[in-house]
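Give me structure tokens for this 483-residue protein.
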Amino acid sequence: MRQLTIERTAAVVVFLLLFALAVRIPADSDMYWHIASGEYTLTQGFIRADPFSFTKAGVAWINHSWGAQLVLYIVWTAAGSAGLALYTAALATAGMYFVYRTSSGSVYLRAFALVLGASTAAVFWSPRPQMFSFVFSAFVLYLLRDYTLRGKDRLWWIVPLMVMWVNLHAGFSIGFILLSVYIAGEAAAAVFAGESRSLHWGRVRRLALVTLAAVPALAINPYGLQIYAVPFQTLGIGALQEYIQEWNSPNFHERHTWPFIALLLAVLGAVGAGSRRLRWTDYALLSVTIFMSLTAGRNMALFAVAATPVLTDHLDTALAERGWALRSIQRATPRMARLNLLILILVAAGSLLKIVLVLDAKTVRDAQAQFLPLDAVGYIQIAQPAGPIFNSYNWGGYLIFALPDYPVFTDGRTDLYGDAFLTEYLAAATGGARWREILDRFSIQLVLIESTSGLARALRETPSWTLAYEDALAVVFTREAQP
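Here you go.
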């Protein structure tokens, strides 16, 4: 009990709160096609051609997230939506644990920075394969900082990590971005280092050697050398930036982006508050992750992982220079230990209550009904209208899971569909001049789309289409049989 100091209590409390914060209702449409892909891989083998749409049926497709999809399917089968929420929270907390281990200063300082970093990264957390990239990027940074700041060389862990990463998510490219940034940062430090120049060049050589060893490790996957092209193909899809919110530049009028602003300003203030100079490597890391975040909002999570330890480095120096550092207590009195235990029990109970309330079955369904066409899908399941179906891009992933007998028109797999097809989809979904031609060309008999969409307005005014179902979120139209 005497080991339960206030510092240890504070550390446990912050992770309990972070886990509770990370538990949210799974309502991401893309999550469902990942679950369906996991089931397909488990029962029929690796996916090499599209099995879910009728527009791209049989077209070659690299399912780079197959390993994470298996995990998602197993978790879903075992524990449903609650299991997916807890799975996401566990990975989010694991990633923030490595950020905590990478950071400097007292428990209180690190806890403050961790909450700010977690608030920034939380916009990224959902039950999707990208959560593995979040954890692995935090772990890689932990290894890199341990090597460059503390002299602990465990860089070879990165090679087997890449073997795991390439079979879980295409975000393995983040690992190479981090390695490249550290090589560039240490090279810049070597140029301006003076007497310690040889130390920095030694680090550059070591980092380059590990990077070169990690490259061939990526070939250990079901798709072989094809996997190397996936990150470049993804970045080359213009539709990502045009149509998908998480790939857009952040809208700073939206409140969920404000923690990013707060973290960025906090880092700038901390760097200026103390005498500690910003390391070249940290400058390179911040520059790259800020640029990535400003061009695609999903990268704010990577910025949080990179910036939080830098914030603690400089805040710790600034506080120490002003004599504001708190003295660490190594052992607690019996009375204080009992009080700390009581605090832990109360926080754990409060966190558990929050989790239980969030994951209540009715609460989950009500929340999912705000984003997914649950009732419209229920109508189709009962009425069984004739297809093929034209569906909203936003719901395609959910329909792959919920309506397996209706191959989708499109879904969140932008790497499969490409720019030209998605542009054509958008022309129809918005009720543009070509919507009739597009629906006729694909012999569409059934439409499930947002009730406020341009296509819905056009179909309401078209005699050959019948409104079969309608609610505040979705509409279902069926085409009348030709005489």
